[in-house]
Amino acid sequence: MTTLHQRVQNHFAESIAAKRQAADLLSEAAAEAALLMFRALSEDGKILLCGNGGSAADAQHFAAEMTGRFERERMELAALALTTDTSALTAIGNDYGFEQVFAKQVRALGRTGDVLAAISTSGNSANVVEAVRVAHERDMKVVAFTGKDGGTIAAMLRDSDILLNVPHPRTARIQEVHLLLYHAICDCIDTMLLEGV
Ligand SMILES: O=C(CO)[C@@H](O)[C@H](O)[C@H](O)[C@H](O)COP(=O)(O)O
Ligand SMILES: [Zn+2]
C-alpha cells in the first residue's frame, strides 16, 4: 500500500512533470497573454476574471495582484474578479440561473478593449462558457485558462484570443499550472510597465 508520505511525494512529482510540460507548451502563449493584457491596461481597458471553485480563488488572486501588487511597486492596474459580489451572484443566479452569473456582469461592465480571463479546468463550466460568449458580443478579447482537452471554451475562441490549455487529466494539477502561468503573466506585465521591455 502507498504510504501517505509516498502519496505526497507523488503529488510533487506529478506537479513538477505537469509544469515541465507546460513550460514547453505554454510559455510563448503566456507571454502573448501578458502583452495582450498590458496593451488593454495601457489603453484604459480592464481585465475581468471569472471561474468556479478553485478557479474563482484564482480569479480573485490574480485581480488582487493587479490592483494591489505582485512583487514590485508600480501603479494600480484595473482588474475585477466577477466571483466576489454575493448580491450579484445570488440575485442573478436566483433570477436567471447559475449559467448567467458571470455573463450578465460581463454585459454590464465589459467594454470593447477590455479582456476577459476565463478560468475553467474542464473548459466546460456553463457560466464561464456564457461569459466568453458575452465577451465576444462586447468585442472583448479572451484569455482562456483551461485544461484537459480545452472543452467548449477552447473550441469557441477567436484568432485574436489566447488559449492557455493544460492538457492534464487532473483538476488539481491544472490549477497548479494555472497559478504558475498567471504569476508569470504578472511578472511580464510588471516588466513591461517598469522596464519598458
Ligand atoms: O478546486 C477544486 C478542485 O481542485 C474545485 O473546487 C473545482 O474548482 C470545482 O469543482 C469547479 O466547479 C470545477 O469547475 P471547472 O474548473 O471545470 O470550470
Ligand atoms: Zn483545488
Structure description:
- It is a single chain.
- The protein is an alpha/beta fold.
- The protein has one domain (4-195): 3-Layer(aba) Sandwich (Rossmann fold), CATH 3.40.50.10490.
- The chain has seven helices and five strands.
- The protein has helices at residues 4-42, 54-67, 86-96, 103-109, 126-137, 151-156, 171-195; strands at 47-51, 79-81, 115-119, 141-147, 162-166.
- A five-stranded parallel beta sheet has the order 2-1-3-4-5, with helices on both faces.
- α6 links the parallel β4 and β5 (162-166).
- α1 packs parallel to α7 (171-195), α2 packs parallel to α7 and α4 (103-109) runs parallel beside α5.
- It is globular, with a radius of gyration of 17 Å.
- 42% of the residues are buried.
- Bound molecules: D-altro-hept-2-ulose 7-phosphate (I22) and zinc ion.
- D-altro-hept-2-ulose 7-phosphate (I22) binds at residues 52-55, 120-122, 125, 128, 171-172, 175.
Unreliable spans: none
Helix-strand sequence: HEHEHHEHEHEH
**CATH homologous superfamily - what is it?**
Glucose-6-phosphate isomerase like protein, domain 1
Q: What composes the largest sheet?
A: 5 strands, parallel
Tally of domains: 1
Protein structure class: alpha/beta
Shape: globular
Strand order, sheet with most strands: 2-1-3-4-5
Which features would summarize this protein structure in a list?
13% strand, binds D-altro-hept-2-ulose 7-phosphate, Rossmann fold, alpha/beta, binds zinc ion, 58% helix, 197 residues, five-stranded parallel β-sheet
